[in-house]
Input
Amino acid sequence: MLKSVNPATGKIIESYETHSEKGVEKIINSTNKTWQQWKSTSFSQRASCMQNLSTVLRSRKEELARLMAIEMGKVVKEGVAEIEKCAWGCEYYAQYAESFLENEHIETEAFRSYISYQPLGTILAVMPWNFPFWQVFRFLAPTLMAGNTAVLKHASNVPGCAMAIEEMVREAGFPENVFRTLLIASKQVENVIRHPAIKAVSLTGSTPAGKSVAAIAGSVLKKCVLELGGSDPYIILEDAELEKAAKICATSRLLNAGQSCIAAKRFIVVGEVYTEFLEYFAQEMNQAIFGDPCDSETTMGPMARKDLRNELHQQVVNSVKTGAEIVLGGEIPNRKGAFYPPTILENVKPGMPAYDEELFGPVASVIRVKNEAEAIKVANDTEFGLGAAVFTRDLKNGEKIAENLLEVGCCFVNDFVKSDPRLPFGGIKTSGYGRELSTHGIKEFMNVKTVVVK
Ligand code: NAP
Output
């Protein structure tokens, strides 16, 4: 049984019967059967369904945002924006998939030689709860437009969102079984990966989950795309616009109650401007109004689950025990629900959880450095490599740091890192491999076929 539990109240909203092994087998076989026809449909046929899906999303955005609010605590306003982004993703791939996957002609001695992109079959998506719609749609839109079919194993705490996605795909007029949700526990994922009809896996989630899924997929030689954890560094140089930078940094740290892979997590500030930046930053972080995510006044909801809130607090406690100092927050509030206040830690050093680990909640680690060179060294001193940002008035220098010096998959100058259907998204090091979105994302689950005609 999978249960939706409202993290603001602890109350069970709904329980869902899980699929049996037989049920899973039947769904996978059906999506595979549908693929036999779906792969030969025209781009315009697929695009018409994808456009419909975008319309369905937009027409249901308030209802879906409320569903996220009660299942995982996202503030309704952020939920509406998430659904709009999903609709944009559908429209983007409806419009561009065909041109991204056009044959590429290459001059050789042959009469004709070219690359053709062929769909692989049924792809398994294993997805997290933090952006329960966007994480799925950024996989679903390119995957279906490319002529693949898909099955989804969503996070166990968002079965309502998982079922809503399946329902909307149907409502949009896609053929039956082009996309199906599997209501299963993570221990059942291994059998799904090993199923002969599953051709590849896309996992977004924690680094341990990525390692486990990649090991299984590797043992049966199936391709993976892995979008994993991050501990994104934001560098504040001495010539940064401090007030503006502090605002952007606080927004990035607190969005989705801090539960984003690309949230700013470590703030690396050059000594000269350290005190001034910290003052602005604490002011901004302190402005969050946390409470019921369905209340329009609220800017930050609870965390998604109590166990995750307690784990985060333990990371704070262990960092403080080894010398970190609390500037703001750091106490579990005396109220019902999985709430945690905006928190700032300073004097953060290697060996502390706040320096070494991902803090998946509204806790900021502030690190003082002597100069730009040390800032870059500290930024790269992590096992993760997802996103990063640098704040400076010297755009040329900012760009040089972003392009050449930071070891990450996405780097922004004077803004916070965000995903965008037009730009590739993904990480390096233990943040994973492969890319989603843009032309790169749609080619991940294709057979890049060479055709030579003599
Ligand atoms: P998680 O615990 O790793 O779960 C993610 C998904 O993987 C869930 O569906 C989960 O199922 C499943 N799963 C977990 N362990 C598994 C295993 N051993 N084998 C097969 N499946 C497994 O992560 P989360 O707590 O939901 O999400 C937070 C993490 O995701 C953070 O580390 C965050 O940085 C990362 N994330 C990364 C990106 C990115 O694009 N790079 C985006 C969003 C989130 P159950 O729920 O049933 O356990």
About this structure: Residues 89 and 387 are 21 Å apart (CA to CA). The domain at 2-228+431-453 is CATH 3.40.605.10 (Aldehyde Dehydrogenase; Chain A, domain 1).
